């Protein structure tokens, strides 16, 4: 009754569980490398479906207008719909599947707990303990996801020069990264950029750091800072 009363949430729960399943079979290619590539695409397509359903839930009345598009781009679900479309037809990159896997796992775990509570307050205690441990590490997981989002930017450039990516991919991914940086719901991308800058500046200011390395790092920090969008 609980599942039928919340059909859209249940559909997203099932698609997230399927995303976790496909992502796991890509990361751990138990069925062979050829099958792993197909699971990579399935995971991203399932994530795109979940993101589209979540976006519909947040903005139920679609309008073909600039105002609606601007409002949609503020939603995290729109960001990851774009993310899935960027990588679904590209060369499989293990780093790109981790945000999809971990976000799906976190959201699926939250809804699984609701399902267990609807069934009985004491049902499946072992599973409940696993879900609680996952929830306790949520902040670390979100930081890890933000790290993946950041370091995928140079990875897309490397893929382009190695012949495994398209010319447009780095530019579209840069747009995705600016959306994540400006996210209202998830500040971890901004936080990680700040923390990485502090760490790099601390290292290069040491006397043992060569002068050319210091200059290169300071120039890179200045360039990246100019590319960062303004956050209200």
TrEMBL record:
Source taxonomy: Eukaryota, Metazoa, Chordata, Craniata, Vertebrata
Homology family: Belongs to the PER33/POM33 family.
Assigned keywords, A-Z: Membrane, Transmembrane, Transmembrane helix
Name of the protein described by the UniProt record: TMM33 protein
Gene Ontology annotations of biological process type: endoplasmic reticulum tubular network organization; membrane organization
Organism encoding this protein: Geococcyx californianus (Greater roadrunner)
GO cellular component: endoplasmic reticulum; membrane
Entry's transmembrane regions: 12-33, 80-106, 150-174
Domain of life: Eukaryota
The keyword Membrane is assigned to this record: yes
Topology of this chain in the membrane: Multi-pass membrane protein
Compartment annotation: Membrane
Gene that produces this protein: Tmem33
Entries under InterPro entries matching the protein: PER33/POM33_regulator, TMEM33/Pom33
């Amino acid at each position: 009754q609980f599942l039928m009363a919340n059909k859209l949430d249940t559909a997203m729960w099932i698609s997230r569980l399927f995303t976790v399943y496909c992502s796991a079979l890509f990361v751990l290619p138990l069925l062979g490398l050829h099958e792993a590539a197909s699971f990579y695409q399935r995971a991203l397509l399932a994530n795109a479906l979940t993101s589209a359903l979540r976006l519909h839930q947040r903005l139920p009345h679609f309008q073909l207008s600039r105002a609606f598009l601007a409002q949609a781009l503020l939603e995290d679900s729109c960001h990851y719909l774009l993310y899935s479309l960027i990588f679904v037809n590209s060369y499989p990159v293990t780093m790109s599947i981790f945000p999809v896997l971990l976000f799906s796992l976190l959201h699926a775990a939250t809804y699984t707990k609701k399902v267990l509570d609807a069934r009985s307050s004491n049902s499946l205690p072992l599973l409940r303990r696993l879900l609680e441990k996952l929830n306790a590490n949520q902040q670390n997981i979100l930081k890890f996801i933000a790290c993946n989002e950041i370091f995928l930017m140079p990875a897309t450039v490397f893929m382009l020069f190695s012949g495994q990516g398209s010319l447009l991919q780095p530019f579209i991914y840069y747009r995705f990264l600016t959306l994540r940086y400006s996210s209202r719901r998830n500040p971890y991308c901004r936080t990680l950029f700040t923390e990485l800058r502090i760490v790099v500046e601390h290292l290069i200011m040491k006397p043992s750091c060569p002068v050319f390395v210091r200059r290169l790092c300071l120039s890179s920090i200045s360039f990246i800072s100019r590319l960062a969008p303004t956050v209200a």
